[in-house]
Write a structure and sequence with these properties.
The chain is an alpha+beta fold and about 725 residues long. It is built from 26 helices and 17 strands. The N and C termini lie far apart (about 115 Å). Its cofactor is pyridoxal 5'-phosphate.
């Protein structure tokens, strides 16, 4: 029968906000949708209302909206005499451009279709730094084989390593022409998806004109075309044949379409390629953008893009003053995208050896080192994104640099509302994390050596773990099968992890990552420079031995108790047989035995057995019945504990190196010396047999007593936290006397 509107809207609201615990994240994601965002959202509903108008009025309205929006965008981004195609998927514009070029270069394509392509295979060139899967998506949509897609490598010798190698592209095009192929289109970047670098668009345009190719440009740096000052490398994009703009992320506008600006003189081919439509409803895609551009105005659009550029420059200036941070930017003066990573520079002595090692491409040390740095930078990026979510930093994988942290405010600042103070907070957090990364990197090798030297511990090499390292306590099996040994190993290491987490330390102990980690191991997280690695390893080994000994003690006790019970049953059965012999056969007869016991009672002490868990032996209970109390037996052995009883200063946590160990040692030595003086002075003088003590000896004895009393007083003062120089005064007095 259907539902009313209130119920349907309530259902939509529940689906949007979800459960109660998800309301916080949802509210944070929607809080930056201001009036300009509401204008864009309003455009979608208005487009639906406008579509019900009469055909003539709808045609006039859609033509006005489309022409106004196209004119504003062409003027704003310096693209003269251009047309616009509005699309939801940002790859759809490039797809339509490819179809337009195919229709243009193959005159009989409309009639013969793919038979024309068979005789002369088209080739589309894209950069190796382009978006992942872009070439495959184009081939799938166009119905072309993957051999029609040519990936152009980036520079390796000169220039940016993220720019397309123009000389190599020229050779590739010549080879394709000689083999009978048709160079069709080149996709260049004005801001690569990873590092934000811009290709040499001027030289690429000349190359495309030479071979009659179409040049399409895309990238985040195209947003800077709206600013008053534009770098020459980006300004060359205004001469290209087409470009794709993603205004939604640049301006923080939700649900607005992407725009592809292009130049072409034949409207029939544009219609055949799908760039234009005769349906008025299709032209209403530009309505949300038409409303938003009018709301922001030219100054508002320029201000947002300028603010994003200032944020990147602010971060870049601060990163230059930080040690162990390496940046990868195209232009030090103006770079909308900032990519940086943690990297420990080598000293002059280490640079030569490191360069020698790097000469071997597949050197295992170099590959492991890069893997470790990738892991640490992955952790750094996640920590910065968690601590400063308004910054919008993320982690990116680059082919040459490895894992890096990327700050692209043009893509995130308008949506997240990033401000200057957020960048400053990001720098402060980075300053706090750099010492932790440096200390952990320095102590990893020492930790590995200490673990390998310690009996009972096994070092597990896990290059993907961002921390000090991974260790496993080895269980010494006594001929047990693999399943039981695995269970014991898991039990001991789980208990070891629990014991380590109960310690009052600043370290984090865990079972490692949820997926891909080693089993039955203890993962140690990031550390600081004052970590005592030897104490940490010794504590882990001692705690593991304690757990293993307790486990063995429990197993042995179970076996001893079982054997003791069997032995007790045999002894009690033997005692019952002896009691029957002592009482006689007559006493076992029911009636006769009662009468006989009444006339002549039989006195027999109750005999039982008690099991001593400490000694593991059976004992008689006669002493218990005599003394009316159960004996304690021998004293049980102490529970195995760690041999580490290291003295610590007040407030000092475990695994921390003490900086006052020398002062504590000198103070302890002074107190011990004063105690020796006290014991020496309190000993009476030795007299030979029959010798009496004269007046001189009596006087000396009295003086020694006075010195002993003074020494005792000073020693008590030292023990009561008095200054150590009082003890020196006692020593001087003793030497004078």
């Amino acid at each position: 029968s259907g539902q009313d509107m209130v119920s349907i809207l309530q259902l939509v609201q529940n689906l949007m906000h979800g459960e109660e615990e998800e309301e916080t994240s949802q509210a944070y994601r929607l809080q930056n949708v201001g009036e300009q965002g509401h204008m864009a959202l309003l455009g979608h509903s208005l487009a639906a209302y406008i579509s019900v108008l009469d055909r003539e009025r709808l045609r006039k309205l859609t033509t006005r909206i489309l022409s106004d929006t196209t004119l504003w965008l062409c003027r704003l981004f310096r693209y003269e005499n251009g047309s616009a195609y509005y699309h939801e998927d940002d790859r759809e514009g490039l797809l339509k451009i490819c179809r337009l070029v195919i229709h243009t270069r193959y005159e009989d394509y409309t009639v013969e279709g793919f038979n024309v392509l068979y005789t002369k295979q088209p080739v589309i060139y894209i950069s190796s730094a382009a978006r992942t899967g872009l070439g495959q998506a184009l081939c799938n949509q166009l119905g072309l084989p993957l051999s029609c897609m040519c990936r152009v490598p980036c520079n390796t010798m000169f220039g940016s390593q993220h720019q397309m190698d123009v000389a190599l592209l020229d050779r590739l095009i010549k080879d394709d022409v000689e083999s009978g192929k048709l160079p069709l289109l080149l996709v260049a970047n004005a801001g690569t998806p990873g590092a934000g670098h811009t290709d040499k668009l001027g030289r690429l345009k000349e190359l495309c004109e030479q071979y009659n190719m179409w040049l399409h440009v895309e990238g985040v740096n195209l947003a800077t075309l709206a600013l008053g000052y534009v770098s020459s490398s980006v300004l060359a994009a205004t001469k290209c044949d087409s470009m794709t703009l993603t205004l939604g992320s640049w301006l923080g506008l939700p649900a607005v379409p992407a725009v592809t600006l292009y130049r072409h003189e034949d409207p029939s081919l544009s219609l055949a390629a799908g760039l234009t439509s005769s349906q008025p409803v299709e032209k209403l895609r530009a309505l949300p953008l038409w409303l938003s551009l009018q709301y922001l105005g030219h100054d508002g659009i320029v201000e947002r893009i300028k603010h994003a550029s200032q944020l990147s420059q602010r971060l870049l200036e601060n990163l230059k003053n930080l040690d162990f941070i390496r940046t990868s930017v195209e232009d030090e003066l103006s770079s909308p995208v900032v990519v940086f990573k943690f990297f420990r520079e080598y000293s002059n002595r280490d640079q030569t050896s490191h360069a020698t090692q790097a000469s071997t491409i597949q050197h295992p040390i170099i590959s492991n080192e890069r893997h470790i740095y990738d892991t640490f930078n992955q952790w750094l990026g996640e920590q910065l994104a968690q601590l400063v979510p308004a910054s919008g930093v993320d982690v990116v994988e680059l082919e040459d640099e490895g894992t890096c942290v990327r700050f692209s405010p043009l893509m995130t600042s308008a949506v997240l509302g990033t401000e200057i103070q957020d960048v400053d907070q990001l720098v402060d957090c980075l300053k706090m994390k750099i010492p932790v990364l440096t200390s952990t990197l320095q102590l990893r090798e020492e930790f590995e050596q200490e673990v390998r030297r310690t009996v009972g511990l096994l070092y597990i090499e896990d290059l993907s773990w961002p921390g000090l390292g991974v260790v496993r306590y080895n269980y010494h099996s006594d001929g047990k099968n693999d399943d039981k040994q695995e269970k014991e190993l898991e039990k001991i290491n789980t208990e070891l992890l629990k014991k380590l987490n109960e310690l009052e330390s600043d370290l984090t102990f865990s079972l490692g990552p949820e997926f891909g980690g080693q089993k039955n191991c203890v993962y140690i997280g990031m550390v600081t420079e004052d970590l005592d690695v030897s104490e940490l390893v010794e504590t882990i080994a001692a705690t593991g031995r304690e757990i293993e000994e307790n486990s063995r003690l429990l197993e042995n006790m179970t076996e001893v108790v079982r054997k003791g019970i069997q032995e007790a049953q045999l002894q009690l059965q033997k005692a019952n047989e002896e009691r029957l012999l002592e009482e006689g056969v007559l006493r076992q007869i029911p009636v006769v035995g009662s009468v006989l016991n009444w006339f002549s009672p039989f006195q027999a002490s109750p005999k039982g057995r008690t099991f001593n868990l400490t000694a593991g032996s059976l004992e008689s209970t006669e002493s218990t019945y005599v003394s009316k109390a159960q004996g304690t037996g021998t004293t049980p052995p102490p529970t195995p504990t760690s041999s580490l009883a290291k003295q610590r200063l007040p407030g000092q946590k475990i695994f921390k190196r003490s900086l006052r160990s020398s002062d504590a040692f000198s103070e302890t030595s002074s107190v011990s010396h004063c105690d020796d003086l006290e014991k020496a002075d309190q000993r009476p003088p030795t007299l030979s047999p029959g010798q009496e003590q004269g007046p001189l000896e009596t006087e000396k004895t009295e003086e020694q007593k006075e010195v002993a009393e003074e020494t005792k007083t000073d020693t008590e003062d030292i023990q009561n936290d008095k200054l150590p120089h009082d003890c020196m005064k006692v020593e001087e007095q003793e030497s004078q006397r």
